[in-house]
């Protein structure tokens, strides 16, 4: 059942090599960053040295390291319940064996493909926060070794599958060849005054004290600064910096019949200048509380099937779920997906009455 006030919300082997191996890609000049240089040096070494007894080598390798600093403060009823700051670096390895047209990431159709839901030629690991070349190289080497062994094993299964199953309709390659890109953003960092924000959250969260029927409430701010480093065997050397900040207000209660009721509102922004004022937070918190109390007083109705009007963020989420996923490239190749738009050319990606219809796409 539902209430009539409805919302749709949105063994360890260490290899020691001379630091002189940390050379930049000869084709381009990498961003002047010690982490990027360490990644580029290890990548070139791996592409030159990784091989099996039968001569199998990777045709593509990339390293991506996300250096993320996160801050979170949370208050309720005028008191701070949480105040934390964390930082970590996470490595992602993409290693491919075969060639651009057919590689280890190709879907295996005959029999169970146990790797389908996990990594297929990749590896993740924590990276040292210090820009120590030897320590970074060690993590990269271990992760690359794991990814290469996994990719070789799966590529053997892929080639066997292709030979023993019917030809696929899709002739799309497993990977695209791209021109190298060189770019370096300034470092992204958070500029939150945590003491000031703790006081602001205390003040705003006190509003819930005026509503005895609100059993739980939260006013919080969370921010993250991500500096991402990327190098690839095609020659790309990238460093990007982004920030994400969010202020979150929520309230919940329980109806007389025991039904749990809750509502929330979120402010999202990409810089500290976009954060809401105290007045904006108080107004949003008050609206959330009033909605929860309205839900509590609303009568219970039977389940409903029929038209619905979606507003604001809810309409975007709904459109993404019912349409956006249908046009994702990897879903068009996966035989276990609906493949609604697979037979359509890029310029005619619209289906009506089971047929592709032409539409004009602006360029």
Question: Can you characterise this structure?
Answer:
The chain is an alpha+beta fold. The protein has 3 domains: 2-8 and 193-301, PmbA/TldD fold; 19-68 and 87-184, no CATH class; 312-356, no CATH class. The chain is 26% helix and 27% strand. It has 6 helices and 11 strands. Strands 2, 3, 4, 5, 6, 7 and 8 form a 7-stranded mixed β-sheet that branches. It has a two-stranded antiparallel ribbon with strand order 1-9. Helix 1 packs across helix 2 (133-164). The chain is globular and about 75 Å long. 23% of the residues are buried.
Write a compact overview of the structure shown.
With 363 residues, the chain is of the alpha+beta class. The protein contains six helices and eleven strands.
What's the topology here?
Layout lengths: L1 E2 L30 H16 L8 E19 L2 E19 L24 E5 L6 H32 L17 E3 L9 H12 L10 E17 L4 E18 L5 E10 L8 H20 L2 E2 L10 H11 L6 H5 L17 E2 L2 E2 L7
Parallel strand pairs: 5-7
Antiparallel strand pairs: 1-9, 2-3, 2-6, 3-4, 6-7, 7-8, 10-11
